Amino acid sequence: MQEELLHFIWKYRLIKPQELISVNGNKIKIIHPGELNSDSGPDFFNAKIKIGNITLAGNVEIHTKSSDWIKHKHQNDNSYNNLILHVVYEHDKSILQNTNHNVEVLELKKIIDKTILQKYNKLLSSKQNIPCSNQIKSVPLIKLNSWLQRMQIERLQVKTEYIKQIFEISGHDYAQTFYLLFARNFGFKVNSEVFELLAKNLPLEILLKHKDSLLQLEALLFGTAGFLEQSYKHKYAQQLQNEFEFLKNKYRLKPIKKNLWKFLRLRPANFPTIRLSQFALIIHHAAQLFSNPILYKDFKVLKKSICVEPNGYWLNHYKFDDEATKNTKALGESSVQNIVINTMAPFLFFYGQQTAKEDFCEAALNSFDKLKFEDNHKTKQFVKAGLKFKNSGDSQALINLYDNYCNKKQCIKCGVAANLLTKS
Hints:
Elements: H1 3-11, E1 20-21, E2 27-32, E3 35-36, E4 44-51, E5 54-65, H2 68-71, E6 83-90, H3 96-100, E7 105-107, H4 114-124, H5 141-169, H6 174-186, H7 192-201, H8 204-209, H9 214-224, H10 235-251, H11 272-285, H12 288-291, H13 299-306, E8 317-319, E9 322-323, H14 333-355, H15 358-369, H16 377-384, H17 392-406, H18 415-422
């Protein structure tokens, strides 16, 4: 018997409909089970219990066995002196601390609804990627949507924790924070870390000083990325090298190693050289996206700013000195969606939380409504279960649900499973 399951049973009062009697023979009535405490201290706060003719309000502690009290060293913690009830699955030892403070003990072993245990064990023993895949369709839509909204916000909050770390490193500079976040995302997994390294070696303020010159922006980016360290035959590459030589000395820039960039198994349109040329164009045409990113709450404005297509040399090149046929190299719809989901929305949510401006948090959540549902191996599992979804808000929620609940068999903490387990 897991303690977490006992918490769940107590929270939802999943016990047989009968008169409750304490170990000492006193009648007990649960008026309110209290609120689950996720920090240190008693398991439930603000519970309301009637014992005999006396109504008590306070804390409840729950254990698998009474002796766990000693095992967890509660006898050394005064915060357990003010309990109104000690709930256990099996009473195997009288606790002096409870006796001294007149705390009654309620044993659950014989009064737990056995169907709950059967349902729970069935979920845990399921071989499916989603343990409740055969039952999830029976969950009322309003309950399911409510839990998915919570999952979406939970996923955003996890992402904002990462942004907080960047914010600290950046000296609480919102623009620099966004720049580092955007650059990392622009590497699209394969080159995310090296793109972030490039951004750390090439501060935003330097790029913004040269925003009016595309050639200088490209020189700064390709040079700091390590692509201008060798000789080239084309005039364009030579121009970049000349520009970078001057700018490198002026700003004391240190190029990173070219071999850090990955080309293998990437489509040519996703080569880091193309991404760098696109990055330069975005700064050139939409510098405000970096200097004042909060202006880009509107999805259409953001999309217009980042849907750039390299021109000139990069129209028929994927690498330096390596000619190719002309093909479109603009950011695709999926790439734009990726940037909104992983950069723009989390940043707006973070900014809204930091400044207590709810409209930015709402803008972050609303941006998902305008994006397509993400079709990947995680979300497909829920679609196969017979559910229908609308947009990327749903898919982001499902990814979080899959990663942190289904995959880890944390059914006892899941709102979907809670509905299935408590259903009579």
